User: Fold this.
Amino acid sequence: MRRVGVAFMCLAVGFAAVPPAAVKRGSYGSLGTTISWLTSRLQALNATGHAPTTIELDETVVQAFHRVADKISGSWLSPFPLDDEEDSESGYSQSFQDVLVKNWTFMDIVPRADDATRVGNELAPGMAKLLVAGDPDARQLAAFLQPLKDSGQLYWAYFAAVSAEDGFVHYHCDNCDHNVPYRIPCDLEELKAERRRHRLEVASSHAETTLDPARFHLPLAVQSVLDSVQFILGGQRVTLRQGRIHYVDVAFPHYIVNRASQRRVTLIIDILRKKLLSQSSARALGPHGLGLWQAFDRTRAAPGYAEAVGQAQDYLAEHELSICNARAGESISTGDMLMRENLDRAEVMGGWGTASAREL
Assistant:
């Protein structure tokens, strides 16, 4: 099963705070590595996974898009399918649902397609209903997305929200194979190898694929909220600007903490790479195509980019699997994943994991 772009767990269950002394050593002992350990190694790569575009939307347009998210708020979904039974095969029970959706949720506008033949051909029910009703805000959003749909290169468009008051999304890589390393053997070298094979598959696809689409963020929250969000991407703290479209290279590990009193809402747009490989081809994406290409190219064309991504994903694998290395070869369990997240959450909420992250 292809795991690219699947969503991530953010399960907030109680865990005792880890002593700061253990964090300073870069390890929780038998409980694995720390966020500080991972952040410092990512930072040492000195790679940039973020580039703002030159595209900036008027504040009234941004507010209209935000109202669309509010109007179809009943359609917000949890980012990972949960089962009703505690002992179900996947291990995620309905009892976690209320906690999970308070951290990270999403809502489709143009649903993700399984293959390129259906890219951009559908609207999510909530969005379609607003358009049928003649909602002016939804019309603005649809008009903004229409050139991308017409290009045939819009893979996915959706709202994503991180909850207020310490909403937490743990370190992850969106386009890693096994981006949720669950129910696989606790085998570090094998996980690294699988992710390496996936990167080679993407690199050899010549962009004729839905693998590894380019992800653009349009922040809709007010700037005071965005300034209160710790968005750590590849060891660097990235502060997004309201109304400015940003290319965010989610091949690099990243995590988010929202310390604001309001949720952080973002319009996320995934575009297939085919039209982003040259300035001329980008024009097919519509009036914003050139700006999107410039940001994408500035990041991907950087010297040593591929090597940095590979090393970053290897570091992430070491962090993820350090929690179960005493049981090497056994399957990664729900308990392992919860322990990993809760250790990271405890560290971040104590302020131990972000001090070394450079500001971008």
Residues 234 and 252 are 5 Å apart (CA to CA). The first helix runs from residue 20 to 24.
